[in-house]
Amino acid sequence: MSASPFIIVAIDGGAASGKSSSAKILAERFNLLHVDTGSFYRHLTAELLARMVPPGELATLQAVLPTLQLSTHVEGRSARMLVDGRPAGDEIRSGEVNAHVSHYSAVPVVRHTLLAYQRNQVDVARAHHFRGLVMEGRDIGSVIFPAADFRFFLHADPAERAKRRSAEGRQDSIAERDRLDSSRKTSPLTCPEGAIDIDSTHLTLEQVVGHMADLIAVKLPPA
Ligand code: DC
């Protein structure tokens, strides 16, 4: 009998488009490592804000970022990034980080800092005996894993996304972050050619995940 394949699932989309909820369920269903790259950009943002390095200070960013030691702690099915051994705290979901994260993520040296680290999550997933990984973000199917087995792009009406965030009791600058994330020069948020585009505005989470899972199951039977 041949060994089961190791698969890479990329999920991209705007803020509050349903990426995290879908990725978590798929990770559970197929025994994949869940990698939320937005949390990595948030963690770096919190770190740089704490060090009072603004996104416009390129020379300081170039000096500070290479000194940060990035490692991974696997908690359940989630990959948590540690910066100099420290996990992210609740502040990465704060209004302050929401307001700044897109500005830091637009800076090429910030993106470069995370590039190899994100690709290395494949090794983390293999070392922990997962059957693959599901990585969510903005440039996963376009830049990080353009040859992923499955590349999904989720979108939904801004009003529907705002409703989802407030149902979670969270304030978020969804439209402004999307505008900045889509218009930056380096790795902008975009639906890459050949990705499976899903409009979730009028779909339930179960319907979105069901569609993705049916496609994945052709290659990898559920765990
Ligand atoms: O997924 P999220 O909303 O938590 O992501 C927070 C921010 O991080 C998002 O506004 C832009 C940035 N980001 C990015 O530029 N590239 C990624 N792959 C993931 C997130």
Overview of the molecule:
The protein is α/β, with parallel strands linked by helices and 223 residues long. It has a single domain (7-216), classed as P-loop containing nucleotide triphosphate hydrolases (Rossmann fold), CATH 3.40.50. It has helices at residues 19-30, 37-50, 58-64, 95-105, 108-119, 121-127, 140-144, 158-167, 174-183, 205-217, and strands spanning 7-13, 33-36, 70-75, 78-83, 132-137, 150-155, 196-199. It has a five-stranded parallel beta sheet with strand order 2-5-1-6-7, with helices on both faces. Helix 2 packs across helix 5. It is globular, with a radius of gyration of 17 Å.
| Count of helical stretches | 10
What fraction of the residues are assigned to beta strands by DSSP? Answer: 15-25%
Biggest sheet strand line-up: 2-5-1-6-7
C-alpha Rg (nearest Å): 17 Å
The appropriate CATH architecture is 3-Layer(aba) Sandwich
Principal-axes geometry comes out as globular
* Count of DSSP strands: 7
Number of domains: 1
| Major β-sheet profile | 5 strands, parallel
